[in-house]
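It would be a great kindness if you could assist me with a short task in structural biology. I am sending you one protein, given as its amino acid sequence and as whole-number tokens for its backbone shapes. I would ask you to consider whether the tokens describe a fold that such a sequence might reasonably adopt. The full record is reproduced below for your convenience.
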Amino acid sequence: MILEFTNNGGVMRLDVAISAHNDTYSRSYFKTLISDSKVTVNGKTVTKAGTMLENGDKVSVDIPDPVSSDNVPQAIPLDIVYEDEHLIIINKPQGMVVHPGAGHKDGTLVNALLDHCDGKLSDINGVLRPGIVHRIDKDTSGLMLACKDNETHVRLASMIADHEVIRKYRAIVSGVIKSERGTIDAPIGRASGDRRKMTVKGDGKYAVTHYEVVNRYTEATDLLLKLETGRTHQIRVHMNYIGHPIVGDPVYGSKKLNRFGLEGQALHSTSIEFDHPITGEHIYYEADVPEYYREVLSRLTPMDN
């Protein structure tokens, strides 16, 4: 499908202008199309989403047709904490992959959602990630949202971008953090030596994480963290950046404390809070830390106060 329009809205970013002319897909999706050379301005290919348009600029967007998917519904048990006709909140176990990809063709949260929701999920993020408006890593446990229709998806994506969805996490990190609370304000981008890894870098994207101490142990600290932004691996990267990597983290963590037989990092999405994008109802849910997390805490020695 080709989307064509003339910008008459004054000076504005390219990705913003495209989103204003088509609300079927998310702004992040259009950013991807721009970086994939699917967009031209006045007949010339543009690859930067932040390109500024002037009045009269002619924009053409090549939106690929949906591709077939091998995603199949699978009757995988889900821990559902909230559900209505528009969205669903799931308490994801550690070790469960969110959507199919290399090495994980099935057995994912998406496969389970397709079965539970009878295939009625938003398709803004394509057929490979139906319903997924945000994600948590495979080895991160806890609460996450999925959408059943595109209107809900668009509104929720906008709310997340505007920091109107409050997400809090628990994490066990290496070492003793002395301050009761703190804020990490450090931009995050792709590591130059490994595109699968993120790092703090000057030209990265704005990223802010707030934390406060729950309990201190002789060799670790149990934290409550609040995301102000939602960059890839944000908490994991930020904690490593301040010298307190998450226990069990196979990418950013210290092997010294990975002696608990963990599948991955001791990181749990513990609460989510927002106003329902369709009904306006205030939604707040918590999920207690799971057994693997409690097991690690039980094997740590509390600090003497």
